[in-house]
Design goal:
By secondary structure, this protein is of the alpha+beta class. It has 2 domains: 105 residues, PDZ domain (Pdz3 Domain); 320 residues, Glycosyltransferase. It contains 16 helices and 9 strands.
């Protein structure tokens, strides 16, 4: 498997300073971004952090932190515990240093040669978080702007993030998410207008067109790995938000094609699979979280004035309801896949239903289930990054209180997820540690950065559809 991690564009110079730095590439799945200092480390058993990569010219490099150094203390605090516990302590020290002009992070490390040394990392001055954070928070605004600028830097001329693309569906999804991230900036068109337009062109050209995975329908005797519904779902959501900002005939036409294709790809049950063509190589067909994106795309398209297949939309809603028990949304209604409510899937279903104009007992139960399990979002199956965004989308529609609770709970997580050059990066969870890897990491920092940039803007009134519920 090809692992893609932060800062593939950095080329390390052959100098004594550069020899302290590791190449950003095939990272151990146990590594964490050391938020704010542009380095990566693995949390060892017992709680020490072994540095695995240091970005050129970043704060860690300026403080002469080297690959192989084992961080034992931050200030006077000895590191101990599991990965998340250690990173909370580490990030709190980084943020405390960032709050001071000419702030410094003091580390005690054991070097690769076995020496015990004290190293001083000169962090960037960002001030403290505002009480109203993330609203009217200069620190969060600066971090968000850096994230949007990093996406701008990574986008290629044809609108995609080719250096970080695993396949065409992933490329379309990342371009659509980046476009949404830029649209959330109050001056998005002025700062990122060309990037938004290029992302739209790429999505329109490629959404729903599988070209890179050797697709063969299962009925023909091959493994069906068609996953085009992902690109159609993400693409439709992006274009619907886009045309709500600026109506353009070519965008509307492309959005209509996408939602018609989504409707055509619906399975007889009412759910959606990764893509059309029958059961995939693992033997299953529908998965609920796919229905969240396809339903949301159809609902948002209808909100901007397009006619969608209402019969199929309602059939899709009924299928999701069959997946739901006590408000919690399961993987599917099939034996072995039902009854396992998950807060991330539930949040996504709640948001999709609200985009389709649904509100009542079902959505109220979903909201309650999600809010009770909000703390488990990052433990979501397969793509934890997606679950984090689903939670923010749901909270933005539930209430201001829910959004404040989400941000209060997860702000340290996002601050600790800062990677290199303004980008955010993936952090492990229990499933990824057990499996030794996850799709989040293989898809690169642009995918994660776009998700988390959208999260930081939700609940601040910066979108016309994403954080605005459709009236029932």
């Amino acid at each position: 498997m090809r692992w893609i991690f932060v800062c593939l564009s950095f080329v390390l110079a052959a100098s004594s300073a550069a020899r302290c730095q590791g190449r950003f590439g095939k990272e151990n799945p146990h590594t964490y971004p050391l938020g704010g200092i542009e380095a990566v480390g693995e949390v060892l058993r017992g709680g020490y952090i072994k540095v695995t990569s240091v970005a050129a010219k970043g704060p860690a490099a300026k403080g002469k932190l080297c690959v192989g150094d084992v961080i034992q203390k931050v200030g006077n605090k000895k590191l101990a515990g599991d990965g998340d516990t250690v990173m909370v302590v580490f990030e709190a020290a980084v943020e405390a240093a960032e709050a001071k002009k000419k702030g410094k992070l003091f580390l005690t490390v054991a070097t690769a040669k076995g020496k015990r040394e004290k190293k001083t990392i000169p962090v960037r001055y960002l001030g403290s978080h505002a009480r109203s954070c993330p609203e009217k928070c200069k620190k969060c605004d600066a971090i968000l702007r850096a994230a949007l600028d990093s996406l701008k830097k990574e986008q290629t001329g044809d609108g995609q993030f080719s250096k970080q693309a695993a396949n065409m569906n992933h490329a379309v999804a990342t371009a659509a998410l980046a476009g949404l991230a830029w649209l959330g900036d109050p001056q998005g068109w002025k700062r990122y207008g060309r990037n938004i337009n290029n992302a739209a062109e790429f999505v329109m050209k490629n959404a729903g067109k599988e070209r890179s995975m050797g697709v063969q329908p299962a009925a023909a005797g091959g493994a069906n790995w068609n996953q085009t519904n992902w690109s159609l779902g993400y693409g439709a959501i992006f274009l619907a938000e886009l045309v709500k900002h600026k109506k353009k005939a070519s965008w509307m036409k492309a959005l209509k094609r996408m939602v018609d294709q989504i409707a055509a790809n619906q399975e007889q049950s009412g759910g959606w699979a990764h893509g059309p063509g029958g059961p995939n190589a693992l033997g299953y067909l529908e998965l609920e979280i796919m229905s969240n994106f396809t339903l949301a795309g159809m609902g948002m398209a209808e909100r901007v004035g397009l006619q969608v297949d209402r019969a199929k939309l309602l059939k899709g809603i009924q299928w999701v309801k069959k997946c739901t028990s006590g408000g919690g949304v399961a993987y599917s209604p099939k034996p072995g896949q039902a009854g396992h409510g998950d807060p991330g899937r539930t949040a996504g279903a709640y948001w999709a239903f609200r985009q389709c104009g649904r509100k009542g007992r079902d959505t109220d139960a979903m909201a309650k289930f999600y809010e009770r399990g909000m703390a488990e979002l990052h433990e979501g199956h397969a793509c934890a990054t997606m679950h984090m965004l689903n939670g923010a989308l749901a909270s933005a529609l539930i209430s201001k209180k829910s959004m404040k609770a989400y941000w209060k709970m997860w702000r340290p997580f996002f601050m600790a997820s800062r990677g290199v050059g303004g980008a955010f990066d993936y952090r492990p969870n229990k499933e990824s540690l057990a499996l030794g890897g996850r799709t989040d990491r293989t898809w690169g920092p642009a995918f994660v950065t776009a998700h988390y940039a959208i999260v930081m803007q939700l609940g601040r009134g910066r979108y016309k559809l994403l954080d605005t519920p459709r009236k029932p």
